[in-house]
Amino acid sequence: MSALTLGIIAAFAWGFHDTCVRSLSQRTPLMASLLTVLIVGLAFHLGVTVIEDGFTPLTPQTTWMAVLSGVFFLMASLGLYGAFQRGPVKLVAPIIASYPVLSVLWALLRGAEISAYDWSAVFAIVIGVSLVAALAQHEDTKSPATGPTIALSFMAAAGFAGTFALGQYASEISGHLPVTLATRLTALALLIGGMGALRLPFWPGVKALPVLALMGIADGIALLCLLAAGGLPDAQYAAVASSCFGLLTILMAWLFLREKMTPLQWAGCAIAFGGIGYLAL
């Protein structure tokens, strides 16, 4: 399986996850929801690791990289949950979807050759995703102040870029299963410590548990795919393709929630998937 294919799978998983975040965040304690998702994601990953017998030791170098990847993953998750809770999606999604540019820049710094055509495809994907999200139709007329929402969105974008850059690099050396496990354990430990210090509620409520469990599995699949791409050629393109989660969130809302899609939004879909198609050649 190619890095691009893994990125597309991650995009669908996160598209579902983020659609649920937007809905649940309006009526469920935000940090309790994130905690439940991370716990389910960890359980999912442990199951995969047991099945594949992936409990291999990390080197000192990959240990600190995986731990730092976990810090970035928590940073990304906090930013994403906070930004989607505030909304609107048309403001949040384009900013978060810009993280592939940082991933490709990291690959460039590591010596990867990125052609002008490849850069054009990268920007086509980002522009397509941004166009769809920016033109999303919303019924809400009131939104919180945009400054903090933009800051949270950029926090999520930087967090995702850092997670994938460090996690994929560590996966090249020690394998993606132990690296992902260390990443998740770090993020979960830091979140529990922070919630305890701030005395935030840990229980999201019984009604939210089924959806949160599905979100945790989706998040587990997505992160596993992104870090598994670390040992494959053109690993940076997994992050590029996964940025379509914003586009897919809008598409899922159109398909399942009957939200409107304008001709310009469909054009954005075509541009983004055209960029992915070029990178797949």
Structure description:
The protein has one domain (3-280). By secondary structure, the chain is mainly α. The mean pLDDT is 85. α5 packs parallel to α7. It has helices spanning 3-24, 30-51, 60-86, 89-96, 99-109, 116-134, 146-174, 176-198, 209-228, 236-242, 245-256, 263-280. The chain is globular, with a radius of gyration of 18 Å.
Task: Describe the structure concisely.
By secondary structure, the protein is mainly alpha-helical. The chain is built from twelve helices and no strands.
List the helices and strands and how they pair.
Blueprint: H1 3-24, H2 30-51, H3 60-86, H4 89-96, H5 99-109, H6 116-134, H7 146-174, H8 176-198, H9 209-228, H10 236-242, H11 245-256, H12 263-280
Helix pairs in contact: 1-9, 1-10, 1-11, 2-8, 2-9, 3-7, 3-8, 4-6, 4-7, 5-7, 5-10, 6-11, 6-12, 7-8, 8-9
Strand runs, count: 0
What is the percent of helical residues?
over 70%
Question: Shape from CA axes?
Answer: globular
Hey, roughly how much beta strand do the residues contain? under 5%
The rounded Rg comes to 18 Å
Largest sheet: none
Stretches with pLDDT under 50, minimum 5 residues: none
Compute the separation of the termini in Å. Answer: 14 Å
Tell me the structural class: mainly alpha
Mean pLDDT: 85
Number of helices: 12
What number of structural domains do the residues give?
1
N-to-C order of helices and strands? HHHHHHHHHHHH
